[in-house]
Amino acid sequence: MAVLPDPAATRAVLIGTSGYAHLEQIPAVATNLSALAAALCAPGSWGLAPEHCTVVEDPATAVEVLEAVRTAAEEATDTLLVYFAGHGLVEPRRGELFLGLTGSIQHRSYTGLPYGTLRDVVLDGRAARQVMLLDCCFSGRVLGFMSAASAEAVIDQVEIEGTYLLASVPDTSFALAPPGEHHTAFTGELLRLLRQGVPGGPELLDLDTVYAQVYAALRAKGRPLPQKRDRNTAGGLALARNAAWAPPGFGPPPPPYDHEPTPPTFMGTPTPPYEPGAAPADHEPAASAPGPAPLPAVPPMPTWSPMALPSPAPLPAPGGASPGHRRAVTYGLAGALFVALVAAGIPLAMSWMKGSSEDDSGHNTSKSSSTPKPGPTSGANAAAEGGVVNASTEPGGTLKFISKNDADSWDPQRSYFGFVWNFSRYYARQLVTYAPKPGKDGTALVPDLAEKKAEVTDGGRTYTYTLRKGITWEDGSPITAQDIKYGIERIWDQDKISGGPVYVQQALDPGHTYKGPYEDTSEDKLGLTAIETPGPRTIVFKLPKANGDFEHMLATPSASPVKKSKDTKDKYQERPFSSGPYKFGPYRPGTSLELVRNTKWNRSSDPIRTALPNQITVKISSDEQTNAKALFSGDYDLDLQSWGLTGSALAQATSSSDLSPRLDSPPNGILLFAALPRSVKPLNNVHCRKAVLYAADRENVRTAAGGPRTGDIAPHMLPPAIGGSDSSYDPYGTVKSKGKPDADKAKAELKACGKSKGFSTTIAVRNNRSTDAAVAMSLQASLRKVGITTEIDQVDGNHFSEAIGAPEVVKKKGYGIVVYRWGADFPTGQNFLRPLADSRFIESTGNFNVAELDDPTVDGLFDTAIAEQDPAKAGSDYAQINRRISDSAAYLPLLFQKSVIWRGSRLTNVYTSDSWQGGYDYVSLGVSK
After folding, report:
1. Residues with Cβ < 8 Å from 834, sequence gap 6 or more?
2. Using one digit for the tens of pLDDT, what is the confidence trace for 139-157?
3. Distance between CA atoms of 430 and 923, rounded to whole angstroms?
4. What is the pLDDT of residue 229?
5. For the chain, give me the number of helices (H) and strands (E)?
6. Strand (E) or helix (H) holding 687
7. Burial letters for 279-294: b for 16+ Cβ neighbours within 10 Å, e otherwise?
8. Terminal CA-CA length for the chain
9. Is the distance from CB of 244 to CB of 648 less than 8 angstroms?
10. In 847-874, which positions are buried (b, 16+ CB within 10 angstroms) versus exposed (e)?
11. pTM listed for this prediction
């Protein structure tokens, strides 16, 4: 029976040479190392501790490699894995294989590492099982001198009892790294298989199943076919956990093994609900499809070039695995010595690389009625490019959402999930809200319950609104200024109405002197004096200090009106009283919700909501596999959480010509970055921090995080949707260099900080997000090149915020680099930057200014920007703050992130909006009949 190794008794050594003095460079090798290290250390795979996974990058001598392998071989008692990627050298007369080092020279095999010597060190260890992955070529020129017999000799060197050999191609021709794809034909299919698993297959994937899958996938594409060799029963060894495995009786039946490739119907792990500073789950790039702005290919791995090996390979046995099923999974390797020979060399253009074009039509054939701004009916990324897909004014039908999670609360004052904020506009209105427009235009504030935006007086401290006529509750009674005041006052009672944002409370009553409507003991029951209601249609807010973002705070659901007579306190979330075009119908918590038309809503009083569907339903199901199948089959129109596809659902959608035209990849407003806490020496020195910024390979980081679709390389700390962001601002030449590091400047900064030979520190990263570990390892690899050595501490994800939010813990643990993400609740510099950069926000616990940036000039600029009423002038102040942050090198910005989201074929009026973290704007949606 196949088993996986014990991680505590297992060691891995990953060796890679990407830079050569005399041979072709292979830049992707560095990315290979970080990606494989992340996979091995991921909890779902082996779960190796980072200190048990040694990375040797760009070795100059054989001794450097052999010592690392020897140490690991002595420590490992269960399994030892050794991986090499780079050029392979062959001595043409004896056929002896040498592994390329940085100084290796063509036709001088003695300048490399003899494979036989490496093999002996591996076999001399204590491990019961040895695993070796050789990702190398024999070099295109050398192949000209090799006969089939000499190639056989090379192969024979790596064959011992218990060995399983899997080679990329069966003959002496070159194998391929197709242009436009992110890795080779052979390795691309191997990685996709390991990510997707085999529906209906065993819990653990053995090597013969892997071979059959890869063979079938390559044959289906007309690409060079792999070869396998094994001794004894090595083919039954476990290579990985089957990501698509389900217990008997769970999920849909698998297709027959000899069936043609079929897209999977399984959805990967969804993103956790939105919270301040939280981010969507990481995604991998989508496959390109014809049409507007094609999405990148899947998966986002580096490109290298496999080579040919002699002798034909047999067809997969009927008991092998079914081709074409893809789901994200990390590596788990077990058994005796496994050798995969995949060549790394120069990609060759061949006619089959062109492939077949994808159909861009999709299935949406509904005809839109006349609208002011008609848009395309389909096309990859069409809804994320500023247009409106399937523009229509046709009413009717049922808009169907499906969601893995229920709302944190349907009570507008208690919700903090971004998707609930978006959805709540169906039944909750505010004085002002975000414009129903695509992209960045959607971040503009427009009047909703109010006739117009606020009249601001008293130096920005008084906001006065007049309510529209005809605004009504679901019982037909008018919505009054007193209703709005009462709804906002509920925020103050955090004992009963907890969970939502408290921005309005902090702006109006920073000392929290008011106790909330349920504990108001004042004799006149005037409630919060900071809000005045001179009449039923007039409401006045009096701030103790001017705050130019106050209207953004009023645009959150927490500022929705609540009718006092209908307030059921903590039970209000079960049935909020509607001020919008829909009201609550049946609601079964954790199962389903139905919104029906509010017949008392006056369309003439609402310039925001189209209210086209007759009803809106939400199905709540934790079964991700069923959810994905239901979405793609058209049973539902949209994922309510809308954070983006992941795992096998993403792979299926991107690989299908029917599904891929309905994918969009918008920016989601999230910044992936690293904080460099100045309390941790030597990061207290600005030049040491700048050395980190110059040495970081951000393009490599992007690949480790998931590739181009994951986001754009970030040269600074302000995402494009935030006022003050400047696309031309590139303080460290990050964009100019296309994300590649500047080693010379990094070394100069090290010299300036007195650490010319480098220094050591620790990278902190959460352990429940595999891509974060990959990012950390990518940083580790690039920093090592300039002498900055790092250890990676994978902190329990459930307690990560607690750990990095405590400066004393950060200092004690020596976390000189902390990888995390941040997103704004509303798109302003105050909301995005201030928690990260204002020294007055540094707290002993719950601290977001992890870098401990303490700059009085920055603090003063925040005060100026916040008091400013003109968004353009405030943006100028935030641009200055952004520059000060860059100058301080307190943070290492990495990626302005993106999501990949799905729109059903029936949807009309579809566009993404920056105000909803790049998701679709729900209030405009309709469905075709």
Report:
1. 841, 862, 866
2. 322 222 223 333 444 444 4
3. 14
4. 54
5. 22, 32
6. helix 686-695
7. bbbbbbbbbbbebbeb
8. 54
9. yes
10. bbbbbbbbbeebbebbeebbbbeebeeb
11. 0.65
